Amino acid sequence: MDFISILSIFVMACFVGYYVVWSVTPALHTPLMAVTNAISSVIIVGALIASAAAGVASAKWLGLIAVALASVNIFGGFAVTARMLAMYKKKEKKALAVKAGS
Amino acid sequence: MEHVVNTPAWALLAYLVSGVLFILALRGLSSPETSRAGNRYGMAGMLIAVVTTLVMQQLAGILEIAVAIAVGGAIGLVTARRIAMTDMPQLVAAFHSLVGMAAVLVGLAAWLNPAAFGIADSAGQIFAISRVELALGTAIGAITFSGSIIAFAKLNGNMSGAPIILPGRHLINFGILGGIIVLVVLYVLSGAGGAGEGSLIPTVVALSFLIGFLLIIPIGGADMPVVVSMLNSYSGWAAAAMGFTLSNSAMIITGALVGSSGAILSYIMCKAMNRSFISVISGGFGQDATAAGGGPVIDRPYKTGSADDAAFLLKNAEKVIIVPGYGMAVAQAQHVLREMGDLLEEQGVDVRYAIHPVAGRMPGHMNVLLAEANVDYEKVFELEDINSDFGQADVAFVIGANDVTNPAAKTDKTSPIYGMPILDVEKAATTLFIKRSMGGAGYAGVENELFFRDNTMMLLSDAKKMVEEIVKAL
């Protein structure tokens, strides 16, 4: 891809990001930060390329360390987000909610 | 322009798909019901991006890579499982630092071995445009790393939350920032732009580490929600810059999403404090309060009450609005608070929760804690949705919040928090205020007028202990 196509994707994605993030409910801002954290570790793609390349040993090692760091983030970020999101629930099952509503 | 990475068409499509899945992951967060599916889209997107990259490289070096992923993944999973919800701000800061460091390492690896990234010509010289991207990506990554480490230390209590002010810090900071820009320009223009040549890139990285550190130390603990959001944004821009280097759409889309997300959250936080972004990041807020020492002298009458008094008032109320703040998190009082809420509801009291956008140490911090304690999220309201209801409430129950309820923000033009939107707890028939002691003002160092009003009752105790006693009395 040439630079202009890449730039176009970037600019469009900024707009998408702007509108999508404004639609996030404030109650979920902490999970939002955790999940953006996890997805920004897509930088692992670069780390994988460096790790797989033969030739320059130092670059390979840096790549592998980066893979490990990004993995902490990917697994940790998604897991902690899932843990948080599982806590957001309505309490319809409980009898007391019915009483309060009636 | 000139640089072409030989990525096959199927891989380009796969990266695009993963980028779209990341968008859906954020879209899902528009409501708690759709959020869990959203998170799974995010995981799928990541899986696609990783597998695509591995397959494209014909699984070269897969063994070492698998070990690295397993080690990192195990650490991540264990941490995610063990972390207490009150510690979420530090965890997020720590995770940001990892993204930053990964960006630095990838940048350095690309600099050492540009051929692997397809960003060098046949003579081994890195393309000019790639040099810009590479230098920017590593610099932003390094700032994210060291800034997040400081934010982590402040949030985790390894370092005092008080601002650390160096003399002439703005001059130093601008000097270093200018230095980084000059070095980047020199690198882009220099003849020595090949693989691992010269010391310009390592110097840029070193200076960026330093500036990240210097930028965050003068910022006080209570401004951390803005800092954490800002670093969130930086980690996104670092990923985007690396995405440009690799012409990778998944990285660019994600970087832009994360970058805008962090920027919007910073904006929301600043607005909720009525402060400009510049004033927050230039730091020093709240230092006067610490410098004054001992807090304001209390020489005015105020009413105090016991847990029994509070229980009596709560029981006989029709509508109660609970206002949690950082003090609730510190005291870990969310579970017993929910218990109190349940007991009141059983007695027919309408209990709701009101959350100020900057309550806690990161955006949405209070909501997560209440969700952890099993509070129904439909009973939890944001400032603008509930503020007009305080007038009809019989009791406003403030636990561990202070400045976000201070009416001086509306009336006192000289107050440092003037203009900040506050929760109108003073409009409730009675305000119950749980506070450790009458000394010590809020983070802004301002006395809260509310304490001395006739319809305010101060409950002076540890938040958790007081709520436990109220529960007993109910």
How does the overall form of chain B come out from the CA principal axes? elongated
Strand content of chain B: 5-15%
Largest beta sheet of chain A, briefly? none
Helix content of chain A: over 70%
What's the Cα radius of gyration of chain B? 26 Å
Give the uncertain stretches of chain A in residue-range form: 93-102
- What fraction, in percent, of the residue positions of chain B are helical? 55-70%
Q: What number is the mean pLDDT of chain A?
A: 87
The count of DSSP E runs of length 2 or more, i.e. the number of strands of chain A, is: 0
Report the count of strand segments of chain B.
6
Work out the strand percent of chain A.
Answer: under 5%
Q: Give the strand order, joined by hyphens, for the main sheet of chain B.
A: 3-2-1-4-5-6
The assembly state of the depicted protein chains is: heterodimer
Biggest sheet character of chain B: 6 strands, parallel
How far do the termini of chain A sit from each other? Answer: 62 Å
Taken together, the total number of domains of chain B comes to 3
Rg of chain A over CA atoms, rounded to whole Å, is 21 Å
Catalytic activity (chain A): NAD(+) + NADPH + H(+)(in) = NADH + NADP(+) + H(+)(out)
Transmembrane segments (chain A): 6-25, 32-55, 61-86
Protein name (chain A): proton-translocating NAD(P)(+) transhydrogenase
EC number (chain A): 7.1.1.1
Task: Give the secondary structure arrangement, pairings included.
The complex is a heterodimer of chains A (102) and B (474).
Chain A: H1 3-22, H2 29-40, H3 44-52, H4 57-87, H5 95-101
Chain B: H1 9-27, H2 32-56, H3 62-82, H4 88-112, H5 114-117, H6 128-156, H7 169-189, H8 200-216, H9 224-246, H10 249-273, H11 277-281, H12 287-292, H13 307-315, E1 319-324, H14 326-331, H15 334-346, E2 350-355, H16 365-372, E3 380-382, H17 383-386, E4 395-399, H18 408-411, E5 430-435, E6 456-460, H19 463-473
Parallel strand pairs in B: 1-2, 1-4, 2-3, 4-5, 5-6
